[in-house]
Design brief:
Double Stranded RNA Binding Domain; about 45% strand
Amino acid sequence: MKASSLGEVIVVCSFSLSILIVTFMSGCSTSTVVDEQKSSSAKLSMDSEEKIVIMGRRHGNSYETEPGFIDCIGNNISRSENLNVVQEKNFLDTFYPWFEPRIAPLNLNRMKVALNSDMIAKKIEELKVRYIVWVDGSTETSEESGSMTCGMAPSGGCFGFKSWDKTSSYEATIWDLKGLTEKGKIKVDSKGSSYILGVGPPIPLIAQVQGVACEGISDRLIGFFDSE
């Protein structure tokens, strides 16, 4: 039986320099929807020594979930007193080349084959890795408009207006290596508009779309596990 919940987080950031700026724009806004699906309503259990590794999907050299986004999730989860995280780079170095693009086990059947290798199984046991969280997705920029003209420093300023939209779409899938089962998924879609207003020194109003998406996934992942 699957249990699912849907949450929405609205983050609004505002910046005001003058009544003119407030009149033309209210700031930058980011809307984020997080969809959580669990294999059961029970919390995922972990021994005190067991660990989690957060991995970004890679398909050859043409596609890679941003390493900075993976680091963001790992760092956030590491702040939880009850969860131990193996950094992605350390994990990749330890298992080189078994989790490199082209040969990484991107589904549970391939992971089962990988664990049939005594070397891989032994290293997993030595590191005490219990869960792998695969993160797939990216942040894209779209709908760019406007223009900006800036004079030469030091006396020159900027004049104009530019705006653009960003969309972050990510999915995190949790594997339990003890039973080789999928325990849940977290999907996040985050959208926001950013602006730069040129009235002398340029005034940026930047929507932190990827950062909000990172927080959404991190908080849900922490909530999957037993907090005792």
